[in-house]
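Predict fold of Phosphonate transport system substrate-binding protein; 301 aa.
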Amino acid sequence: MLKKALFAATALFALAGAANAADLKEFRIGILGGENEADRLRNYACLQEDLKKEFGFEKVSLFPAADYDGVIQGLLGGTLDFAELGASGYAATYIKDANAVTPILTTKQTDGATGYYSVLIARKDSGFKTLADSKGKKLGYADPDSTSGYLIPKVTLPKDLGMPVDQFYSSTSFNGGHENNVLAVLDKKVDVGVTWASGVGDFKDGYTSGNLRKMVDKGTLNMNDVVQLWQSPLIPNGPIVVSNKLGDEWKGKLADFFMALPEKDKKCFEAIEGGEYAGYVKVTPEFYNAVIETRRATIGG
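Predicted 3D structure, encoded as tokens:
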């Protein structure tokens, strides 16, 4: 009798969960910080409309956080249903609560790669030609939860510098995200700064995708004004994650929707991703194991 009662209770709970998923009225999207808020909202407006049309949501709410941690905390606290994170941001979420979200998709570059790069740039008129030329200068980071804007440079730059970052540079600072970090270089607040790029295509265009490409497309960066001094090893592209509170049915629906988006609405796909990509591919948490362990060992949650 006890087993039957437990089974019945479990079944009712599962049915209640399915009903709640089916009746989802509002879909809440977190948008990482580091870019002008108006630009982020404009780029995601098309996604709002496409999601409403596809699923009949009464409301698709956009939450552009001031920094990466704002989105991470929203996912952990259950106030966000969906976000696209960097690999380190996902690692931070996973370390704090492995059951909070599930990565379902990541982007695929135009050359088929599922990774991108951290790059170090300087003003062209700085006269810097090599990484060694920047010794003793000021280094700008993007965000503490950024993969390419902090974690990977912190871990991999020392090998190429021949010493720890804090010994090579006179100072380091966080500058409020990738766009702001590049602007800090252009405004001479720092001498060199790290940001992210596909590493595919032409440097003069800001590559095919990434922060440099976004800024070129918006007219806030002329690649003739900067030089690249360093490129990291390949970094796993960040995941699209879904709150586990939505259940497997919604994960599947959303994965199907985004897999089809590059063909159904290419302009919107390129707006939210910031440039040219081949599309999306499915991923599992295991795809990010190396980044999770690197973050755990280096900066923790």
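The chain has a mean pLDDT of 92.
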